[in-house]
Amino acid sequence: MEYLIRFVQVHESFRKPEVEALAALANVDVEFLDYSECSPFCALRLPNEAAARALMSRSILSKGIYELWGSGATYEELHDKIRSRTSSQWAQYSSCSFRFDFDTYQVTRSVLEQTEIIESCSYLGFNGRIQMKDPEQIFRIFENYDHGTRAPKRIYFGRWIAASQRHTINNYSLKKRNYISTTSMDSELALLTANISLAGPGKVFYDPFVGTGSFPIACSHFGAITMGSDIDSRMVRGKDGLDIRTSFRQYGLADKYLDGFISDLTHSPLKTGRFLDGIVCDPPYGVREGLRVLGTRDGGGKEVHLIDGKPAYLHDNYLYPKRPYSFEAMLADLLEFATTHLVDDGRLSFWMPTANDEDVYLAIPTHSSLELVSVCVQSFNKWSRRLLTYRRLPDNTNSITEPVIPVISREIDTKGHTVNDLNSFRKRYFQGFKTSSPDQFVPDETVPNSEPMRTHP
To answer: Which H or E run contains 112?
Structure first.
């Protein structure tokens, strides 16, 4: 059967991957018949109405789905299609209460025009009561226009099946959340990431750059058990009685959150073994400050400092020493961590920045044990960020993909290097993404040695 999805015209490159992911979750086959990122209308083939409802039960980037009765370039062609495809179905709706809706894209129709077009469908023989609120059936006419034109390039007619879950975005809005920071991922993109990574009941998801917990919250909304870690102990411990658990309690999801801990990918306390169903994260881009991992520059230990007779590292507000880290090394470590911890077909979804500049294109990283599933792009002014999603291949799968991140990047010598040397994206962010002037300040200080912070409780 053919159906029509009415998308919202935002995050266009995310829409098809979300539908494909939701189809995978529902275990239904989907065939795209007519889809373009330039249009909010998508015609597709699904097994039945139950499959259509399953897609909408979690969809974030759509408004609803309709049983497609016909489409055409003109109303004459549309009516011919409706007659030839659905005449046998009209009788079952003849006595139902109903209403007609009108939906135009890039053009506005007057009420009089809409009424004339709706009345042209009188041959359908619907004799039931016209009911504007909560009718038994809703039929909708869709018109798709090119910008600046007055004649539609495509017209669709459909019977409403189900609404999406787009309202969930407002439920998890950062404006209403008790524990956030300046880098918290907004609810729409967090929920999208959870969908594309196949978060769901009976699964365990982990965010190694958890921050204030936007991704674990989104994954737990869909039923996953979640946990997270962060190199910044202040994020994990919280402040003024507020922390990640505060947000989970706020949304009634406290039973879905295992815990948070202080760690980075190079010093993970998680057990060795493939037990994670998903890894979702937004790694730091190193723009505000250079990237760091736990440890000292020379790899050696430091003298233990006592505060009130107690080692400093045992105090709650202790900040662990950190050493500089390259962006490429972080990506390599992330992919390697995913291969050693994801179950077969488990997903890794993470955000990665790139410049809209051919001089500093960051290649999409690959790994022989990971299959790239989708690449979604959110564009800004002179840079973009991509949501990359991978599937963990079974060990007996032979992949022809070769890693593009050299292993040596994990062992880069940082002595005397600047934070810009370790992160080309950061350098171009300051030099190329803004109007430059001779006096423009470009942060490029030498990365200092990292020392343990001496603080009093």
So the answer is: helix 111-119
Q: How far out from the chain centre does Cα 4 lie?
A: 23
Whole-angstrom Cα distance, residue 61 to residue 66?
A: 15
- The C-alpha atoms of residue 168 and residue 180 are separated, in whole angstroms, by 18
Long-range CB contacts for residues 167-176, cutoff 8 Å, separation at least 24: 168/60, 168/221, 169/60, 171/251, 172/217, 172/218, 172/221, 172/251, 174/214
Q: Each residue of 138-158: pLDDT tens digit? A: 999 999 999 999 899 999 999
Return d(Cα 221, Cα 42) in angstroms, integer.
Answer: 27
Gap between the Cα atoms of 349 and 372, Å rounded: 10
* Residue whose tokens read 């073994």: 273
Q: Which residues contact 239 (CB under 8 A, 6 or more apart)?
A: none
Contact (Cβ atoms closer than 8 angstroms) between residue 322 and residue 231: yes
CB-based contact 231:314 (threshold 8 Å): no
Q: What is the pLDDT of residues 87-136, one digit of tens each?
A: 999 999 999 999 999 999 999 999 999 999 999 999 999 999 999 999 99
Output the pTM of the full model: 0.84
Look at residue 316 and give its three-state secondary structure: coil
For residues 406 and 369, what is the distance between their CA atoms, to the nearest angstrom? 16
Task: Give strand ranges (E) for 295-369.
Answer: 306-307, 310-311, 322-324, 342-355
Q: How much is the CA Rg of the chain, to the nearest whole Å?
A: 26
